[in-house]
Amino acid sequence: MIKSNQRFFNFILVLFDIVVVTISLLLAWYIRFVSPFFDDGVRTMDLGAYLDLLFVIIPLYLILFAAFGLYKPYRKQPFYKECREIIVSNIIGITIVMAILFTGKNIHFSRYMLGMFFAFSTILMMIERGLIRKILRMARERGFNIKYIIIVGAGSIGQTFATKIIGDRQLGYKITGYVDDYYHKMEKNGIPILGTTHEMNEILEEYQVDEVIIALPNTSYKRIDEVIDICEYQGIKTQIIPDYFHLIQGTKAYFDELDGIPLINTRYIPLDQPFNNWIKRIADIILSLIILILVSPIMLVTAILVKLTSPGPVIYKQIRVGMGRKEFWIYKFRSMRCNASVPGDIGWTTEDDPRKTKFGSFIRKTSIDELPQFFNVLKGDMSIVGPRPERPHYVTQFQHEIPKYMIKHHVRPGITGWAQVNGWRGDTSIHKRIQFDIEYIEKWTLWFDVKIFFMTFKAVFESGY
């Protein structure tokens, strides 16, 4: 029954999304070609041509919405995360649409109109989802669309779960009571104890419940088996809270499977998902090519000035540790004299480092020396956004000194990163840097990368990043 309700709800969502996408296109067409806001008299293509575009846009957008989890149950997904996924999926969608038009040499479609369509579809979809949430919340407050649950286990695990359920009414769950073998016919934090696990069958027959949450320690595996058997006999869904859930790090648990054997990853890393990794890699390649083309004059002038201001090679190579703890050569414009002392290879570069040339100080302060690293991105050694890579000497040192330091090597290192745009760069607290790096790794989204990318410009121009 629950699954059929969810399928029906998803069907309604799909219909609403189709309506929103269609209205957004029509509204953009009207404002561009009919309204008085644009009085240039341009009418490159009639309405029929734009309506034909919907046969590409609608299936593309629905696939993207499904890929970004926009048809998952609302109860367990915060609204701000849903808005973020709407924005990202719309950005990818309009990019693909424009790429298709460009590849097919359909140059007569209005760019202004497509831009307005992107804005309207993003805004209207967030309004649509917000209204649906509001309606569902109001319905739940009036007793509709409520799921009744029983928690098996009134210990610390069960109480922690109950506290979260009670503290977030929009989840739409109501706790009927606890089932526990050690507390008999009493209340625990205002929630009644309905009986023991031996009375589970009678309890389920007496109370109408949708789900049973098992919050027992792993040592009680026999009781867990019995409870699951009884619930399945009664046709009631069960979910288990592992008593080692506190060991799971990051934003959420990540479940995997090996030939039928379930595995729980103790740290969820979004970029371990092939789709996320693929999206980020494609974005890195496209953006790196665009940036290299745009900054090629700057790189040419920089190369000439590096050569003129001090003897030695233009490009400086240094071994760094990347994803999977593999070493690679990182590229930079040389900013120091070639006769700099050897300790520089294992020492931090300071603000007034005497080894730097005058021009080297300038390109380091403006981060122009980092531009060759976009070739590292194209090679696959680095990403545009990610934790900054360190030299092997420091990796070995910090691995022993800083807990969880090596987690940063789960992803590709970046030219810029969450720690750097927050001021933790160079000779600053490595503990703080790792804290921000882990936060980035665990909370990665494409939108997060976009945010860091633009924050980098602010950091460069305001604080000499």
TrEMBL record:
InterPro entries: Bact_transf, EPS_sugar_tfrase, NAD(P)-bd_dom_sf, Undecaprenyl-P_gluc_Ptfrase. GO terms for cellular component: membrane. It is a multi-pass membrane protein. Residues 280-461 form the Bacterial sugar transferase domain. The chain crosses the membrane at residues 12-31, 51-71, 83-103, 109-132, 285-306. GO terms for molecular function: undecaprenyl-phosphate glucose phosphotransferase activity. It is found in: Membrane. Its EC number is 2.7.8.31. The keyword Transmembrane helix applies. The keyword Transferase applies. Keywords: Membrane, Transferase, Transmembrane, Transmembrane helix. PANTHER family: COLANIC BIOSYNTHESIS UDP-GLUCOSE LIPID CARRIER TRANSFERASE, UNDECAPRENYL-PHOSPHATE N-ACETYLGALACTOSAMINYL 1-PHOSPHATE TRANSFERASE-RELATED. Belongs to the bacterial sugar transferase family. This is Undecaprenyl-phosphate glucose phosphotransferase.
